[in-house]
Amino acid sequence: MANKHTHYDKTEAKALRNSAIPAAIMASEGTRFDSAEDASVFFARELDHVKAQSYDVEYPELTALSLFPISSEADPGAETITYYTYDKTGLAKIIQNYSADLPRADVNGKPSYAKVMSIGDSYGYSAQEMRASRLAGKSLDVRKAESARYQIDSLTNRIAWAGDEESGLMGVLSEGQNIPLFVITAGADSNKTSWLEKTADEILMDVNGMQKQVARVTKNVERPDTLCVPADVYMDISTRRIPDTSTTVKAFLLEHAPYLKDIVSTSELDADSVETNPYAKKGSGGQGVAFLFKNDERKLSLENPMPFYQYPLQVRNLETVIPCEARTAGVIVYYPLAALIAVGVS
């Protein structure tokens, strides 16, 4: 075989050796192992290779995992994450020499809590799949591990955007985050709020209106720098040019919208992405959402105390099963006023 992976988990090799799987494989015609021990070591090595490969897989379409700051500071054993929001209190005043009544400045901290929940799935190989792999001279199918990794990452991504009402996990679009809403005005010609129907100047007016609302309610303390838009909106503004110029609407926005550094295509915010967009609907009637936020871990973070983890194999009759788990607390928004949700951009 061309597989050069030489490491393996001795515990997994022992579990395989003590199971009925090596004997079943050795009893098959065409087997090319010298002993059941060799078969156990070979497949333990193969499984170790599969696990290593699945850790390397990246799925850029799951935007929350690459867009939001991710924190794994909490211990995987934690059931909740406690965080504090602070407010400055007190005052200062003009004093006389030798004054003994200096006013006190302090901070007040308010505790909040986020639950940590487990996400799990598994994958496995039957004795026949192991036989077929060895006979064909190929490695075990890595796609099973990749699928297990993808399903856990996909659920984490959905939670990061819309949360999970049943478990109480929060996403950035969850109502309980208290992120303000921005009311988009209709365009002059189309009488619609959709950016697909608006001119570049009208879209810029909306974006700057979002920035102005954040500045007004925070006394210009917060300055969001990242704008997430539905995929169809992103495609439109990235390719539509300002009349009689070579400048795209996206470039125009980045040039003329204060503090804005990046505009991101986010299919999770599409008008029909019902799993990640609370304002979406299948078919017509749903609303695409724009999400403006400060991309800073001090403002919000996706809390994953335990990223994707694969446990040692478990033998069940003539099948080896690999349990997988991750633990997440969803998105914690420390400063809700540093973000803004605009409904109806598409």
How would you characterize this protein structure?
The protein has 346 residues and is an alpha+beta fold. It has a domain at 175-302 and 336-343: hypothetical protein PF0899 fold, CATH 3.30.2320. Helices cover 30% and strands 23% of the residues. It contains nine helices and 14 strands. The strands form four sheets. Strands 5-14-8-6-7 form a five-stranded mixed sheet, covered by helices on one side. Strands 4, 10, 11 and 12 form a four-stranded antiparallel sheet that branches. Helix 7 runs parallel beside helix 9. It is globular and about 85 Å long. The mean pLDDT is 87.
What is the count of helical runs?
A: 9
Low-confidence stretches: none
Strand order of the largest sheet: 5-14-8-6-7
Helix content bin: 25-40%
CATH architecture descriptor name of one domain: 2-Layer Sandwich
Radius of gyration: 27 Å
The shape, in one word, is: globular
Distance between the termini: 53 Å
Helix-strand pattern: HHHHEEEEHHEHEHHEEEEEEEE
The overall pLDDT, averaged over residues, is: 87
Level-1 CATH class name of one domain: Alpha Beta
| Strand segment tally | 14
Structural class: alpha+beta
Remind me, CATH topology of one domain?
hypothetical protein PF0899 fold
Assigned CATH superfamily of one domain? hypothetical protein PF0899 domain
The largest sheet, given as strand count, sense and whether it forms a barrel, is: 5 strands, mixed
**Percentage beta strand:** 15-25%
Task: Write the SSE topology.
Blueprint: H1 10-17, H2 21-26, H3 36-56, H4 63-67, E1 70-71, E2 80-89, E3 106-115, E4 117-126, H5 127-136, H6 143-162, E5 181-182, H7 200-217, E6 226-229, H8 231-239, H9 249-256, E7 262-265, E8 289-293, E9 300-303, E10 306-310, E11 314-316, E12 319-328, E13 330-333, E14 339-343
Parallel strand pairs: 1-9, 5-14, 6-7
Antiparallel strand pairs: 2-3, 4-12, 6-8, 8-14, 9-13, 10-12, 11-12
Helix pairs in contact: 1-3, 3-6, 7-9
